[in-house]
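::Encoded backbone::
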Amino acid sequence: MASLHLVGPGALDGVGVGDPVRLDGAEGRHAVSVARVRVGEVLRIADGQGTVVSGAVTATGRDELTLTVDDVTVEPQPRPALVLVQALAKGGRDEMAVQAGTEIGVDRIVPWSAARSVSRWDGAKVEKGRARWAAIAQEAAKQAVRSRVPTVSAPVTTAQLAAVGREARRALVVLDPVGAVRLSAWEPPADVEEIVLVVGPEGGIDGSEFDRLEAAGAVRVRLGDTVLRTSTAGPAALAVLQTRLGRW
């Protein structure tokens, strides 16, 4: 499979077969200087929103290259979309979940300031943390050769998360090691546009948070008989959902 490189959203709008596409900036520099891409090699360039062009490189410069498009594909947005609400966690475990979740196919990622989250984003840390997660998601999408890069939203509180659960056409699913329903047996509603998967921090989800989310319509599910770390639970659950939805 040809290498995948990313350009900004909208950069491929209107591009057709035979058109030149330039790859510059950090991506172009990496392709030319690190990956040693040469004239004649075939590359794939995606805009992170489902549009992918491919073609042979026709010219290279110091920090850029140009290819001539011989194929354009637009991959539709999967429905229902998979959203990972990942609680902030210490030791980089939340970042590990972002990376693996992106590789598995999550569509959107939402940081959650849970009651038991040891890690906290305050002040300038909010945008810095969100940007860090977004960069991790972008690199993971490239590694997985994904045409769509998941967006990373601003962090939410438990109250805001409960409000999401009350919205129509969204299914709120909360991982609970002692939940009565196995995720592998849970039947996603047929009419939902998003499945919102909620993963707690290293200390688990507080009882009052479970109550609040359940009152908002959330269903508590378990993966199995073992307790997974916060870095593992989300990706494992996403893999189960991909299978349940027939995508894997």
Summary: The chain has a mean pLDDT of 93. The first helix runs from residue 25 to 34. The chain has six helices and twelve strands. The first strand starts at residue 3 and ends at 6.
